[in-house]
């Protein structure tokens, strides 16, 4: 019913930058929030950043001042600009979207996850 396509992962050196993108498609009525999570091997999945309805944002303390989440409402796309990357940022990054879909039988809420984008920060 909804598709999330992630892009932008890859390898970066410490201090470098990467930008992740996540595009949502489908019969979308509205989006409540779009967010980025990450999970490193042996660690719990954690919220990195969230872009809420109304334009407010939330960030993990570990990325404040380095990462910026933004959204293009016309394209149902969320971005994560990652600057000053550190080796501890290495993880699989997942797009997460809470939205309402339209269907012939009415509207319904769903939470969808992207497939994950690997980010590796290493010299």
Oligomer: single chain
Radius of gyration, CA atoms, in whole angstroms: 15 Å
Provide mean pLDDT, rounded.
Answer: 96
**Global geometry:** elongated
Name the helix and strand elements from N-terminus to C-terminus, one letter apiece.
Answer: EEEEEEEEEEE
> Strand content of the residues, in percent?
over 45%
Q: How many DSSP H or I helices?
A: 0
Please give a quick description of this structure:
With 123 residues, the protein is mainly beta. 0% of the residues lie in helices and 63% in strands.
What can you see in these coordinates?
- The strands form 2 sheets. Strands 2, 4, 5, 6, 9, 10 and 11 form a 7-stranded mixed β-sheet that branches. The chain has a 4-stranded antiparallel β-sheet with strand order 1-3-8-7, with no helix packed on it.
- The chain has strands at 2-7, 10-12, 18-26, 28-39, 46-52, 57-59, 67-72, 77-82, 91-103, 106-113, 117-121.
- The protein has 123 residues and is mainly β.
- Helices cover 0% and strands 63% of the residues.
- Strand 4 (28-39) and strand 5 (46-52) form a beta hairpin.
- The N and C termini lie far apart (41 Å).
- The radius of gyration is 15 Å and the shape is elongated.
Topology:
Blueprint: E1 2-7, E2 10-12, E3 18-26, E4 28-39, E5 46-52, E6 57-59, E7 67-72, E8 77-82, E9 91-103, E10 106-113, E11 117-121
Parallel strand pairs: 2-11
Antiparallel strand pairs: 1-3, 3-8, 4-5, 4-9, 5-6, 7-8, 9-10, 9-11
